Amino acid sequence: MMNRTELIHQIKEKKSFLCIGLDTDIKKIPKHLLEEEDPLFSFNKEIIDATKDLCVAYKPNLAFYESMGHKGLISLEKTIQYIPDNIFTIADAKRGDIGNTSEMYARTFFEYYHFDAVTVAPYMGEDSVKPFLNFKDKWVILLALTSNEGAKDFQMIKVIDQMGVSTERMFETVLKTSMNWGDDENMMYVVGATKAEMLKKIREIIPDHFLLVPGIGAQGGSLEDVFKNGANADIGLLVNASRNIIYASNGKDFAEKAREEALKIQQEMQGLMFNDSNS
Amino acid sequence: MMNRTELIHQIKEKKSFLCIGLDTDIKKIPKHLLEEEDPLFSFNKEIIDATKDLCVAYKPNLAFYESMGHKGLISLEKTIQYIPDNIFTIADAKRGDIGNTSEMYARTFFEYYHFDAVTVAPYMGEDSVKPFLNFKDKWVILLALTSNEGAKDFQMIKVIDQMGVSTERMFETVLKTSMNWGDDENMMYVVGATKAEMLKKIREIIPDHFLLVPGIGAQGGSLEDVFKNGANADIGLLVNASRNIIYASNGKDFAEKAREEALKIQQEMQGLMFNDSNS
Q: Which entry of A15, A78, A94, A257 is annotated as an active-site residue?
């Protein structure tokens, strides 16, 4: 259970707003782990041990666990139980369905697995998101502007606003409409770091909400740009890195190398937060 | 494995385009089943036995299985294995993520569970959908216009088309853009039956694609309206009913009552297909 105040406290204490994506792929983890009883969990356990003082959030990507069938879900369950209580946990699941189904997903991630937050897709509108917001001290992280090429297909198209004029893009409408479904205590937004120039625009609409920013590293965004355009007084950012940390090495030193990569990012974040990289 | 030709053959042979939604909820199934080792599977098994000659598709709603943790996924696995090969299977999962993650979801539903089709949300665009289309004789069922209240929030808003004029709504843009990602042999669309008057418009854009139509019964659409506005020469419809069939009774006669409800719908479908209800 982690509310906004506690999350901000952790960010300031750890001098980090790093989220580590646990996109744990049986085909990419070091071969020696395949002899273990539960390779995915063994991998995650070592990654968590090596990085837990450097990050404020872990984000398992559900697809990687689901692809292993029910066994993958057991690995996920053990992983969540293993993550220390003072670290924010995000189910990167991108769910969203009619009300009674979204409520089932909310129960799944919040009550069964005890995640703090779940990523949700906005296409089905208010009643597909609201059921997630009925859980105290739990969070919806709604997709607004994603970091992939396909973001241009629908998120970036121009729409007609309520005044009958076209001044905004779809993702802006998503922000403006959805910001009233909850508040900055139970909603965050996914905003891709490849669109750092869009962050200013987004901050005009939602100055206070936390943003979950994927796309640092492998997907190519600049941390400095993200911070300059996206940070607010409470920092208000969770910046995710996955592959460049967890697959820094595929040898027996994978956890050590993951720590080195995480430390580099944490140090850069500390510099940006305390302005000592520019002094 | 079921391609378009075989699906059409099944529809004509069974005189039915009924899809039964297996939204199997541990809190709603008859109490006597809770003594069984695997209540969800026991329920599904009886429902399948009682209805398999009346429907052409089953659609398990993933949320209901996931809410039970890894045990629910075992129930799902057994359910899919139990469904006869000549019945189309749809994972109602509403996934959609960046390319490498969508590929993992595709493997999950197509290779691990052996579903024929999976429902996908369009918000993240082309590269979030394409990985599902790379599997031979498998299907994407893309959300276009859903049957819930929230459909108005984003699906129904007016957008500016490539000519700079506003002649269409978001769901029409989704149809026009996505119809070129695959073809009518590997893509279908979700179109809510509560919007029967929209079906004509949709058929102008995609005359040949199959439509998966939820919202009959509990959600209130009329089968006759759907057929009149949505059917094409190959029928081209899968109409889903869930709760009004599977929860027709919560006593020991639940399967028998489910059959009665399914038979009513199949008879109405037969009447519409062969025009003998109007004669």
A: A94
